[in-house]
Design brief:
This protein is of the alpha+beta class.
């Protein structure tokens, strides 16, 4: 059988996997690299680190000897979204790339909305509001703050597309990642000429847009030699990390969603048509499935809230776990199970780093509300897990409110590793939750895209059906679901009650220097 490589250029490292066309994973290699924050709120990386990690990870995976280099028939690329790589006329990197979590562009977001004629008109053009993480504000920041570098810039690429340039010599992107630039006409899957004109940006700085499974180029002789592969291996469009992960989870038809509970949380819904939230609370992007779209809500501190609890308050549980040879999270979740559903009125708001969906509020902060003498550590642990899951339900509620059907939610990330949390998600979401046989996320998804683009499968849906199976599922418990359905409106109201206080707290902190 043929072999396909999936390469995911992440924020902490690049992961390369090799799979057979039946989905069997043959090998995996991850190479890490640094991230810099030269000023508060800034987040940057050297794009050459991504290219070097890609070349070396492929070289190492080939050297494992579990397949022949000649068996590699296609390569798929995934990557962290929104990052900006500015290149000069000689394809040289002008400055470190600004990443998805860089917060320096608030003024440029306001400028974009003003130039577009307001938030509503902007959403009408590109389906999304201006957020600091997106690419377009980063381009304007370069123009406003580093004009000499802006004058040198002849092209701007996303992270995975810079790696594509190094591998194939082609300036190319694909629709799912391009959607996160804020410059794509998402409905028509092409660059938005009207917005580019309003922003006084030339379309020449942007690469050609492909569908995700389309072949965008082939390995050059030089790149192939460095990696130990034959020249001419096709490289498909690939996908932004979230769309690629969705393909890897089989989220390729309506009714099936994914809930990924990592440090941040993502609720991802496939859509056969363009469905836009007029308030811009959730993102609407092109899917990595030809002619399809997706909606996505993002919780900034989902699993990150439990990680904070472990690090700051869970020293006892960590010590117990160490003595038993267990993961501290196992001890904490076992403790959480001792408290009843709803934590007897104790609520945790998981806004440790502000919040994106649905509030888009950088000033929001975490809180326990409802503490009494009756509450102990088990209540606190359970309320953190419940609060993070309520925040994910915020995303789900918006998606369901836009008439997107939800029959099954596939779980991944830390929230999928605990049987307790899997059932709790079913109870809070009010729908069946499930886990699947694949766990390699974006890298697996783009490996499947490579298999489709090179003819091993007719389309993405066929590839997912052939390689991805549900391994277990959980139905909501009727009694527990009623408790959470009563608790959720209280949770949702707490943000509204505290919204004004959050901005006052931010002003107080700023005044302290």
């Amino acid at each position: 059988m043929s072999v396909f490589l999936g390469i995911d250029i992440g924020t902490s490292g690049t992961k390369t996997i090799a799979i057979r066309e039946d989905g069997t994973i043959l090998a995996s290699v991850t190479i890490e690299y640094p991230l810099s924050s030269p000023k508060p709120g800034w987040s940057e990386q050297n794009p050459e680190d991504w290219a070097n990690a890609t070349i070396n990870s492929v070289k190492q995976i080939v050297q494992k000897g579990v397949f022949k280099a000649s068996e590699v028939k296609g390569i798929g690329l995934s990557g962290q979204m929104h990052g900006s790589v500015f290149l000069d006329k000689d394809q040289k990197v002008i400055r470190p790339a600004l990443l998805w979590n860089d917060q320096r562009t608030a003024a440029e977001c306001a400028e974009i909305e003003e130039r577009a004629g307001g938030r509503k008109k902007l959403i009408g053009m590109v389906a999304n509001p201006a957020l600091t993480g997106f690419t377009a504000p980063k381009i304007l920041w370069l123009r406003n703050k580093e004009p000499k570098n802006y004058e040198r810039m002849v092209s701007c690429l996303l992270p995975k597309d810079f790696v594509r340039l190094r591998l194939t010599g082609e300036f190319a992107t694909e629709v799912s990642d391009a959607s996160g630039t804020l410059l794509l006409d998402v409905q028509n899957r092409k660059w938005s000429a009207p917005l580019l004109k309003k922003l006084d940006l030339s379309a020449s700085i942007l690469p050609k847009v492909y569908e995700s499974e389309e072949v965008s180029g082939v390995l050059t002789t030089a790149a192939a030699e460095q990696m130990g592969l034959p020249a001419g291996v096709p490289v498909v469009g690939g996908g932004g990390d979230q769309a690629a992960s969705a393909v890897g989870n089989g989220i390729v038809r309506k009714g099936v969603l994914s809930a990924t509970m990592g440090t941040s949380g993502v609720v991802f819904a496939h859509s056969d048509e363009v469905q836009i939230d007029p308030e811009g609370r959730v993102h609407t992007f092109c899917h990595a499935v030809r002619g399809k779209w997706h909606m996505m809500g993002v919780v900034l501190s989902a699993g990150g809230s439990l990680q904070w609890y472990r690090n700051q308050l869970g020293q006892c549980e960590t010590a117990v776990a160490k003595s038993l040879g267990q993961d501290p999270y196992e001890v904490i979740t076992a403790q959480a199970q001792q408290a009843p559903a709803g934590s007897e009125g104790l609520f945790f708001l998981p806004y440790l780093t502000g919040e994106r969906t649905p509030h888009a509020d950088p000033y929001a902060r975490a809180a326990w509300i409802g503490l009494s003498l009756r509450h102990g550590r088990s209540h606190m642990a359970r309320s953190v897990i419940e609060g993070a899951t309520f925040a994910m339900r915020d995303c789900l509620e918006i998606i369901q409110g836009l008439k997107v059907p939800v029959k099954e939610v596939r779980l991944s990330g830390g929230g999928a590793r605990s049987a307790f949390w899997r059932q709790l998600q079913a109870d809070i979401y009010g729908v069946k939750t499930a886990t699947i046989n694949a766990s390699e996320g974006p890298a697996f998804g783009v490996a499947l895209l490579a298999a489709v683009g090179t003819g091993a499968y007719k389309n993405v849906v066929e590839a997912c059906d052939a390689t991805i199976q549900v391994t277990d599922s959980w139905q909501p418990d009727t009694k527990t679901r009623k408790i959470y359905d009563a608790a959720y409106p209280l949770y949702a109201q707490l943000y509204q009650s505290l919204k004004g206080d959050y901005s006052a707290i931010a002003k107080f902190v700023a005044a302290q220097g």
